[in-house]
From TrEMBL:
The complex is composed of two ATP-binding proteins (CysA), two transmembrane proteins (CysT and CysW) and a solute-binding protein (CysP). It is a multi-pass membrane protein. The keyword Transmembrane applies. Residues 60-268 form the ABC transmembrane type-1 domain. Part of the ABC transporter complex CysAWTP (TC 3.A.1.6.1) involved in sulfate/thiosulfate import. Probably responsible for the translocation of the substrate across the membrane. Keywords: Membrane, Sulfate transport, Transmembrane, Transmembrane helix, Transport. Gene3D superfamilies: MetI-like. This is Sulfate ABC transporter permease subunit. InterPro entries: MetI-like, MetI-like_sf, Sulph_transpt2.
Length: 276
């Protein structure tokens, strides 16, 4: 890969940096810092109150379970879809690629409503039949997992696809010419090449899954200690004038997401741009 040559710094360079830093500060850093400030303005009381509230702890547990399921599903299907898009020529590939980005462009509320129409127990297309065999999707954990997996689906794929395109197929073809099977080629050649893209996509998917709100609110039913995730608890606590618990729960969600991103950033090789 061609090395990047440093451009000479001019007054315009510093102006652009100042604009970017100011934009990020006003849009991201300052609002998040205010949440942290509100969480700890009374010491650890807000965190202590939140962590001893069964409504909050049950919601956090459900959120983690849902996020892990969604990430696992998106990891498997993200790899399969990425390989399909990059390694195979077929009619409709462009349409499939466009559909992958649909969760990023459509409102999560629409996603939740669509899932209800498909899997709702009363009026859903498949819901009544699924409930007849004992599987409740809407207003239950499976529905929350589906909604979360839907909104976070593109994040794994959009990290892997560019790396697959960059590494090409030479090493995979060489392995196959030496007698390696499809699984051996994937496990020993392809997967090591995309490992950091996969890890970064998984972390982004996890962070997105932890913070999903709109689709989950529609499809979960928002029942405390049953189908209420952490983001829904934040809304409820804030509306019930329990701002301390709302700030503390928001802080915990942000802390997990930021910690995951920081760990991956630290572990990721600085000069590793091709996944090796």
């Amino acid at each position: 890969m061609a090395s990047r040559r440093a451009q000479p710094k001019t007054a315009g360079t510093y102006v652009r940096r100042l604009l970017v830093i100011g934009y990020l500060f006003l849009l991201v850093i300052w609002p998040v810092a205010l949440v942290v400030q509100k969480t700890f303005e009374g010491g650890l009381d807000n965190l202590r109150t939140a962590l001893t509230d069964p409504v909050v702890t049950d919601a956090l547990q459900l959120t983690v379970v849902v996020a892990l399921w969604a990430v696992a599903i998106n990891t498997v299907f993200g790899i399969v879809i990425s390989l399909l898009l990059v390694r195979h020529e077929f009619r409709g590939r462009g349409v499939l690629s466009a559909l992958i980005d649909l969760p990023l462009s459509v409102s999560p509320v629409v996603v939740g409503l669509a899932l209800l129409l498909a899997y709702g127990g009363t009026n859903g297309t498949f819901g009544p039949a699924l409930e007849d065999v004992g599987l409740q999707v809407a207003f239950a954990t499976p529905g929350i997992v589906m909604a979360t997996a839907f909104v976070s689906l593109p994040l794994v794929i959009r990290e892997i696809v560019p790396v697959l395109q960059e590494i090409g197929t030479e090493q995979e073809q060489a392995a196959k010419s030496l007698g390696a099977g499809g699984w051996q080629t994937f496990w020993r050649i392809t997967l090591p090449s995309i490992k950091w893209a996969l890890v970064y996509g998984v972390v982004l998917s996890l962070a997105r899954s932890l913070g999903e709100f709109g689709a989950v609110k529609i499809v979960s039913g928002n029942v405390a200690q049953q189908t209420q995730t952490a983001t829904l608890v934040v809304e409820q606590k804030y509306q019930d004038f329990e701002q301390g618990s709302a700030y503390a729960t928001s802080f915990l969600l942000a802390l997990i997401a930021v910690a995951a991103l920081v760990v991956v950033t630290i572990l990721r090789p600085k000069d590793d741009t091709d996944g090796d």
